[in-house]
């Protein structure tokens, strides 16, 4: 179909976890995306979550600022990404796109989807142990990964043991990486995973 939006009618997300509300179209030559507007209707009222025009992106409802984004470099993909779902995010979201044709006429399409936010029982993070011992040549790129499961969000901390001294904090991501490993990087490392 000509400049039709596609996306599901319902999304189920987990409280405190990330969610993507898919909305996409196939770009057509001669039609330029003019605006993208994501709105929400929920128990607390309604409003504009996200607005994009040719000059800027804006999260208009304060409770969504810093938590929502839309891809910029993928023509036709106008999906809304919510970094961390709150229970109050439940509602009906509408994705509306307006295009300007080469003859300056405007065309608008929209789709709506229901978003449910579910709570799952809180579970402690469980780290899956990797292989012990890693040898890499000096100057090589290498990394250690901390893989865990449990209730999101999970934060990570990497420590390096020092003989006879305290463990030193060396990273705060799931992956600890070196662009160019050197002999002084040798040692014992361990990972800690934490959630609420």
Automatic annotation (TrEMBL):
<dbReference type="InterPro" id="IPR013783">
    <property type="entry name" value="Ig-like_fold"/>
</dbReference>
<dbReference type="GO" id="GO:0042130">
    <property type="term" value="P:negative regulation of T cell proliferation"/>
</dbReference>
<protein>
    <submittedName>
        <fullName>VSIG4 protein</fullName>
    </submittedName>
</protein>
<dbReference type="GO" id="GO:0001851">
    <property type="term" value="F:complement component C3b binding"/>
</dbReference>
<dbReference type="Pfam" id="PF13927">
    <property type="entry name" value="Ig_3"/>
</dbReference>
<dbReference type="InterPro" id="IPR007110">
    <property type="entry name" value="Ig-like_dom"/>
</dbReference>
<feature type="domain" description="Ig-like">
    <location>
        <begin position="121"/>
        <end position="196"/>
    </location>
</feature>
<dbReference type="GO" id="GO:0043031">
    <property type="term" value="P:negative regulation of macrophage activation"/>
</dbReference>
<dbReference type="Pfam" id="PF07686">
    <property type="entry name" value="V-set"/>
</dbReference>
<dbReference type="InterPro" id="IPR039939">
    <property type="entry name" value="VSIG4"/>
</dbReference>
<dbReference type="InterPro" id="IPR013106">
    <property type="entry name" value="Ig_V-set"/>
</dbReference>
<dbReference type="InterPro" id="IPR003599">
    <property type="entry name" value="Ig_sub"/>
</dbReference>
<dbReference type="GO" id="GO:0032703">
    <property type="term" value="P:negative regulation of interleukin-2 production"/>
</dbReference>
<feature type="domain" description="Ig-like">
    <location>
        <begin position="19"/>
        <end position="112"/>
    </location>
</feature>
<dbReference type="GO" id="GO:0045957">
    <property type="term" value="P:negative regulation of complement activation, alternative pathway"/>
</dbReference>
<dbReference type="InterPro" id="IPR036179">
    <property type="entry name" value="Ig-like_dom_sf"/>
</dbReference>
